[in-house]
């Protein structure tokens, strides 16, 4: 690695971490800190638990903060170099603007990889841990009322549970509807007054079973006082895997979407979330191009102007991103192109600015 690369990386890394701290403070200063203060002062939660909740909440914030911090880092570093005439000296030595951008790209690749790691590993784990703390504080089960969850423990069988209410003291699920699928599709529906999970079995009481034929018609209706099905899943394991699409990793969500699609369900919104998981981390690469170009255009940019430019650029990015997502949700664009439209527009804008600066 050349001296120039080390020189630029040293400054950009320092500015990046400064930006991360700044944006974490700005983003968490509102709702998050208010909720934490209420848990500590009003709910009586231990201070160490409050600190734990804060750090467990960081992965969901860092996914968005890290790319923005790259942008701020580039603006501050290039702006200072340009203001001190270092960029002019480099240009006089035959160094192009694109060559100046190389160390920023290398650093943004590391940030991109780190963002993906946080999104795929840290966020799902942190979500489960936060739910455990929430259960401890509220005394409520992680399986909430009026919710769905899946049991796929029996080979070739998938059961989708809908739970109306929960009797906490007896660990009973009340008002339960279960859709049971095999490789050919829906096979039966169990509608029970209550259900419990005991010693490797789901036990349903006082309900009706609707057996479904290959063409989707009801073939037989059976009333029962008690019905049992085998499972290797416990309530605790269900609690651990119960996640929203935002909390799932890319491969996990893609598998979930394929399962939903095979059952004939609409998956457009889920696909949008899926491709967002790729668009956001790679936004840091786009921000490098824009940051280098604008940092050179505004050579006297200090930290205040750098923060202001970062906010304006990110605002413009999210406007285009929202527009692309809306077009994809309306069927005008595919989910991939809808979520990546902001990155593509940003890349073209950054390249155009660099080309214009090179020519001028």
Largest sheet: 6 strands, antiparallel
Report the structural category: alpha+beta
Rg, nearest Å: 26 Å
- Topology order in helix (H) and strand (E) letters: HHHHHEEEEEEHHHHH
Count of individual helical segments: 10
What would you call the quaternary organization? single chain
Keywords:
360 residues; alpha+beta; 10 helices
Question: Could you explain how this protein is built, in words?
Answer:
The chain has 360 residues and is α+β, with helices and mostly antiparallel strands. It has two domains: 3-138 and 268-359, no CATH class; 147-241, no CATH class. Helix content is 62%, strand content 18%. The protein is built from ten helices and six strands; from the N terminus they run H-H-H-H-H-E-E-E-E-E-E-H-H-H-H-H. A hairpin with a 6-residue loop joins strand 1 and strand 2 (158-167).
In brief:
This protein has helices at residues 3-28, 31-41, 47-83, 86-92, 97-138, 235-241, 250-262, 268-297, 303-329, 335-359; strands at residues 147-151, 158-167, 172-182, 185-198, 201-212, 218-230. It has 360 residues and is α+β, with helices and mostly antiparallel strands.
